[in-house]
Amino acid sequence: MRIGEIAALVGVTSRAVRHYHHIGLLPEPKRQANGYRAYSLRDAVLLARIRRLTELGLGLDEVRDVLANDAGRELAEVLGELDADLARQEREIQERRRVLAGLLDGPLTPDAPLSPALVELLTAAPATASPAAAKDREHLSLLDTTAAGDAVYGALRPLAEDPAVLALYERLDELDGAAADDPRIAALADDMAAAVPDEVLAAIPDKGAVATGLEQALLADYPPAQAEVVRRVMRQLTVRMHQRPS
């Protein structure tokens, strides 16, 4: 059989067969004198098994393990892992549907599709035209992708309802365009860090290396003077988090 024939027999494309050759998943038969590869029935059986395994949801590396000799993993083991992964995905989908149902049950606001907990927090906060407050609002939406979101939002509720916080945002707005060594930076950073309740710090999980990347991206979102304020606030909050009793 030629490549087009074995591909048609098994129900895959010739391109897929060539890819399996390229990654070493399917042995490539030697070319005949006429330059064409000659595929045997054994090649077709192996190709059919590859197709069945990929249709079950196995990745090509997992298929390679299954097809390996004694050193390979048992098919039952790989399928068990696949089943556990599908179960995890099913739970995640159910949780997303639960959040979606909550949104559909209530009025659809401009904040949708934020989680109900974050919408409640933002609704409780006093209205303001502060650009810094608007930026914080955007940053909070990142927590909607984590399991800690609801706990952090609940801890932030007293802070969001505190009118004094608006004055902090206004002071931060005033630093837009200022230099990174502006004399107002230190006092504002101290006041902003002091305003964050310990309950908020307790609700924030330790993300390790992820936190480092997030901090860098967060600081890049601010102009120099504001970024320096945020950097100092984050440094003070990190120290407080590490000083919390375990």
From TrEMBL:
PROSITE patterns associated with the record: HTH_MERR_2 (PS50937)
Pfam family, one: MerR_1
UniProtKB keywords: DNA-binding
HTH merR-type domain boundaries: 1-69
Coiled coil regions in record: none
Gene3D superfamilies: 1.10.1660.10
Signal peptide: none
PANTHER family listed in its UniProt record: HTH MERR-TYPE DOMAIN-CONTAINING PROTEIN (PTHR30204:SF93), REDOX-CYCLING DRUG-SENSING TRANSCRIPTIONAL ACTIVATOR SOXR (PTHR30204)
UniProt-recorded name of the protein: MerR family transcriptional regulator
Species this chain originates from: Streptomyces glomeratus
